[in-house]
Amino acid sequence: MGLNHENHEEHDVKASSSPFLAVGKNGRLGGGDAHRVKIAALMQTSLPDAALRGRTIVLVGMMGAGKTSVGKRLAAALGLPFYDADEEIERAAGRTVSEIFDQLGEAEFRAGERRVIARLLDQPPHVLATGGGAFVNPETRELVSRKAVSIWLKASPDVLARRVARKNNRPLLAGQNPHEVLKALLERREAAYQQADLVIESGEGPHQATVDAILQALRRRLLAGAD
Ligand code: S3P
Fold first, then answer.
1. Whole-structure pTM value
2. What kind of architecture, by CATH, is found in domain 47-223?
3. What's the gap in Å between 62 CA and the centre of ligand 1?
4. Which residue from 38, 32, 31 is spatially nearest to 15, judged by alpha carbons?
5. Residue of the nearest CA to atom 1 in ligand 1?
6. In testing the pocket of ligand 1, which one of 172, 183, 188, 189 has its CB within 8 Å of the most ligand atoms?
7. Contact by Cβ (8 Å): 223, 9
8. Residues 145 and 60 sit within 8 Å (Cβ to Cβ)
9. Where are the domains of the chain?
10. 39-64 confidence digits (pLDDT tens)
11. Atom from ligand 1 closest to the CA of residue 98
């Protein structure tokens, strides 16, 4: 289920600063407060170990949401390898995504996408950027929910349309009005994306801001006791 991060903000900001407030003159944690002790212990643990417990992070969302750019930076921040599912599909097929759509059809692309993501999810923990349609597949969603922590990078059709205008490698947008197609696809896919573990807004700002928001959300999730 998506986590309503905004509701947790105030509580967690207070909670995460409490270990410092709790240190008395003798340098000990005061009050025997188990919650504070737990937080102090968590702060000694590295974020990926504690919040991810050996799981991969899967970024989902529409074309233009920034999954690849954010994913690369997030992987660097966490010291994890990065994979891009579309690139892996291209490598496996020996063709570009556009060529696969043109020559083999979308259904074949979707079957390859499902297989490639299933294979990647068996690899050691990493950050995985998926293509915009991947999380719509129920089998992929089920695998991701069992083996990974999923994050929906949520962006408005306006933001998406501006971002996709930089490249013309997306067959679903070729020869179409990108804003209209993106809006219609988002409406159809939103219910699937909402099933991600975390929802992070991906706005106009720099990708690093989105990475920082993800890291904060992972910390909050950990403090809230999610598994
Ligand atoms: C698609 C998104 C693309 C790529 C393919 C189909 C989609 O990936 O998988 O063109 O159905 O939304 P990005 O989301 O990385 O652009």
1. 0.81
2. 3-Layer(aba) Sandwich (3.40)
3. 7
4. 38
5. 132
6. 172
7. no
8. no
9. 1-44, 47-223
10. 665 555 566 566 788 899 999 999 99
11. 10
